[in-house]
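Backbone-to-sequence.
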């Protein structure tokens, strides 16, 4: 029997939850909660639109699509997960390369533009990765060897930083109140001011309030405090049955020397081990070299999570026209500057 897609239809909320819970390589980014919270944050500009695909061998896969409405609703793009996070299928039975090829082809053949960060935990990730248009990596700490093993590949500098933070009396705890979340958002605002235009993303306070209301066990805000109770650093982690990711982190610059971020990663790894999770994911670094170096010093190992971007045919045509128009403008400017038509390269 030749493997083929037998049926595809919108998935129910119950099906989404069931396959997410059963899938060993699911991340929080694949969950219904993540899609729904972004829909709330964007006031409906992002809309959950999961699809259940059934194969003729009886196996099935759920595509956790979030529909992005653009140009005042006149255009649509499919996100395999919101906010640049991991996407891809969920399955409650093991899939094979042939299933992955069919699912990848199904997604790429649709006429709707697509944005998809390949899930590095999927054992079949190499199949969609062949279609990647943008390379990227995340940094992972494997947890099967316990807290010390998780940081086995951490540098001496990171270990020293953790001890320094502990000697300074810094402590780590979970946020418990709305005031804790407000304090963290203030730290994030100071971080945005420090990054300026180099910030890779900017979120409003309303997103953090939505995440606060979602709460445990999926969403946790970790805080680092001085002896006097002042909050100086924090991180939002998102948990799935086998995986936890440090999605967002911020630290007050004036307390960098106490190394609160290093202590935070150490404690997040310890907690994840106590919960018998397989991975602590430090997430892609948004192109920031300093962030990448910090994660590698903490023991994070780089793992590919490339991006697939598929534009609509009309978008490619518009882009081509824009390039041609830009070249014509440049030629016009050169012509005005060089009435004899000579180019820079041909001049003596």
């Amino acid at each position: 029997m030749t493997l083929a897609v037998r049926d595809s239809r919108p998935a129910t909320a119950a099906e989404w939850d069931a396959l997410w819970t059963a899938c060993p390589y699911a991340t929080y980014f694949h969950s219904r909660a993540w899609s729904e919270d972004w829909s709330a944050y964007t006031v409906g500009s992002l809309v959950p639109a999961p699809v259940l695909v059934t194969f003729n061998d009886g196996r099935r896969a759920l595509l956790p699509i979030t529909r992005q409405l653009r140009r005042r609703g006149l255009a649509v793009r499919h996100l395999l997960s919101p906010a640049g996070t991991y996407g891809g299928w969920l399955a409650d039975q093991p899939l094979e390369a042939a299933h992955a090829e069919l699912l990848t082809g199904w997604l790429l053949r649709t006429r709707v533009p697509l944005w998809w960060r390949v899930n590095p935990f999927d054992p079949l990730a190499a199949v969609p990765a062949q279609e990647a248009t943008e390379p990227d990596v995340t940094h992972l700490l494997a947890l099967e060897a316990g807290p010390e093993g998780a940081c086995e590949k951490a540098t001496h500098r990171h270990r020293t930083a953790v001890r320094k933070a502990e000697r300074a009396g810094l402590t780590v705890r979970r946020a418990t109140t709305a005031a804790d979340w407000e304090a963290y958002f203030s730290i994030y605002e100071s971080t945005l001011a420090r990054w300026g235009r180099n910030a890779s993303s900017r979120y409003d306070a309303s997103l953090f309030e939505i995440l606060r209301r979602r709460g445990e066990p999926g969403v946790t805000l970790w805080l680092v405090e001085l002896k006097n109770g002042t909050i100086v650093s924090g991180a939002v982690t998102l948990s799935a049955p086998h995986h936890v990711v440090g999605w967002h982190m911020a630290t007050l610059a004036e307390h960098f020397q106490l190394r609160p971020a290093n202590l935070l990663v150490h404690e997040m790894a310890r907690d994840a081990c106590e919960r018998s999770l397989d991975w602590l994911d430090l997430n892609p670094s948004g192109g920031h070299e300093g962030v990448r170096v910090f994660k590698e010093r903490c023991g994070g190992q780089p793992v590919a999570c490339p991006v697939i971007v598929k534009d609509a045919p009309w978008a490619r045509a518009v882009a081509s026209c824009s390039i041609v128009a830009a070249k014509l403008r440049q030629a016009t400017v050169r012509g005005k500057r060089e009435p004899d038509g000579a180019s820079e390269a041909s001049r003596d």
